[in-house]
Amino acid sequence: MAGRGQWSVVCPIDHIDVIFKRIKFLNEHFKRFSVYAYNKDISITESKKHIEDVGERALIFNLHEYVEVDEIKADLACIAIYESKNTFFDEYDMAKFANRLYKENLGDLADYNINYFKDLAEKNKKFKKHRSYRLVQNKKELFLRGITSVDRYFEYGIDFTFVVSMLSLHRDMKTNEGNAYTISSAAISESKLEMIVADKNLKDAGEFGKVSSAMIITTNDLGQGSLNYNKVIKVGGTLFNGVYIFPPSDEVQKTKLVLSHSSTPMTVLAKLKEFNALLNNTDEFIKELQDVEKIKSAEDLRQRILLRISNPRSAFKDAHQLRDVFKTSIANEIASFAKLLEMCNKAEELEIDYDLKEKLRVIISDILLSTRK
Q1: Which of 275, 198, 162 is closest to 14 using CA atoms?
Q2: Range 332-353 average pLDDT
Q3: What is the pLDDT of residues 139-181, one digit of tens each?
Q4: To 10 degrees, what angle do helices 298-310 and 354-369 make?
Q5: d(Cα 349, Cα 345) in Å, to the nearest integer?
Q6: What is the reported pLDDT for 335?
Q7: Would you place residue 295 in the very low, low, confident or very high pLDDT band (cuts 50, 70, 90)?
Q8: Residue 185 burial by Cβ neighbours in a 10 Å radius (0-12, 13-18, 19+)
Q9: Average pLDDT of the chain, as a whole number
Q10: Phi/psi zone of residue 261: left (φ > 0), alpha (ψ -120 to 50 degrees), beta?
Q11: CA–CA gap between residue 20 and residue 46 (Å, rounded)
């Protein structure tokens, strides 16, 4: 019950309290804020000490003059993390070049190039860039997590994403009696979130076991990402494991909602009304899975997956544990597809970065469904 001037909603979604507590902890221990500065007022140095979770010779951005809220300030130092340094270097089309120089211990040469562009910015407004520098403070250390436009970037962070997503699911449950959801997986940092919400109503898909619809909800508040809702199908396993399969590529636009950080809050809230349309039943997908079983053998599909993740240019070329999961051949027997799903489930459970995990899901989905017709 809410008091006057307040309102509350009870969302009966399994594990919602666990995610809420984690986000509350992150908000209390990681202070996020932005300052504004011109590139001409920034210099870069290399750290002389090892920085935990960043490494040796981390890049330090020194903002000699900047604006916080509406106050002009001076001399702020922050440690570059995520892709912030690349975003800065990309302004000069020199990200790859600068990173190579720092890697080869040629930071002085990188500084020479940066200072050249700083001098240009002093003389020519074409090179004078005003940007928002997105910072996060943890304990006594200050980190630069992203660089964005000053006036064309709207923050849709982990807290916003969590709240609007849970409310959207709650609205769906009220509209469609019998729908019930559980948060089956989550990975959260102060700036990034990936959460999988699965339908608790499972359906039988024959040899592929039980399936249900699920939603992968992600946000990346670092300047390059967006707020995404991807409808997927969870195949096999219980409520808390299984394999997440993306829909066929020709149907992706019907099952994906992408909200960029350049979208205004009113646009985002209006678009979120499409959320319910993504939560369709799984009957058509079950039929497609059964078509896969008729066309290809599990062993052929296993070989294709192993080939993709073993490619020298693959993002998984150093993921030896992942390749080990798929290295054992599958005998041509009745339970062969169950064994393939077991391999995919083991891959899903590996502790790898969730951006890489999404790439893995896409690879597995493409290989499974590319042969359905």
Answers
A1: 198
A2: 76
A3: 889 999 999 989 888 888 899 999 999 998 998 888 888 889 9
A4: 140
A5: 6
A6: 63
A7: low
A8: buried
A9: 83
A10: alpha
A11: 37
Global pTM value: 0.79
3 state SS for the chain: CCCCCCCCCCCCCECHHHHHHHHHHHHHHEEEEEEEEEHHHEEEEECCCCECCCECCCEEEEEEEEEECCEEEEEEEEEECCCHHHHHHHCCCCHHHHHHHHHCCCHHHHHHHHHHHHHHHHHCHHHCCEEEEEEEEECCEEEEEEEECCCCCCCCCHHHHHHHHHHHHHHHHHHCCCCCEEEEEEEECCCEEEEEEEECCCEECHHHCEEEEEEEEEEECCCCCEEEEEEEEEECCCCCCCEEECCCHHHHHHCEEEEECCCCHHHHHHHHHHHHHHCCCCHHHHHHHHHHHHHCCHHHHHHHHHHHHHCCCCCCCCCHHHHHHCCCCCCCCCCHHHHHHHHHHHHHHCCCCHHHHHHHHHHHHHHHHCCCC
The token pair at 347 is 């891959």
